[in-house]
Amino acid sequence: MRPAYLTAARHLQLGREWAVEGDQEQAVGAYEEALRLLRTLPPERTRDVLLAHTHLAYYQTLALLGDEAGPEHLHLGVSYARSTRDPLARAIAEECLSGLETVL
Fold it and tell me: What InterPro entries does the record point to (predicted)?
């Protein structure tokens, strides 16, 4: 099971890199692949932390595109961040939520 986590983490990393480079299409594909893989794994903290980070990164990328699917990923990312209590995921979630409040 550990190789699956490493593969999902690598897709997340690539997605973030492509998003920073402006290649949102490649980034979205990488996030989709990470989510597809993570959803096949049994629930546990490592999987849930990766799901939080992936959903939040996905939301941030979709927000740049103005995509309407973004809020779903924000909701899921925040939920996973809260349940895992991962400090970094929670910080990212708070940042995303504060940015959302600014827009509203």
Answer: TPR-like_helical_dom_sf
The residue that leads in pLDDT, 100 or 92, is 92
Q: Is the pLDDT of residue 10 over 90?
A: yes
Q: Are 63 and 71 in contact (CB under 8 A)?
A: no
Greatest CA span in the chain, whole angstroms?
41
- Residue 67 is given by DSSP the state -
pLDDT above 50: residue 33: yes
Task: Write down the H helix ranges in 1-104.
Answer: 2-21, 24-39, 45-65, 70-84, 87-103
| Rounded Cα distance, 29 and 72, in Å | 17
Measured from the Cβ of residue 9, the count of other Cβ atoms closer than 10 Å reads: 18
- For 93, the token pair is 């979630």
Query: Is the pLDDT confidence value at 44 over 90?
Result: yes
Instruction: For the chain, list the domains and their CATH numbers.
Output: 2-103 (1.25.40)
- Predicted local distance difference test score (pLDDT) of residue 2: 84
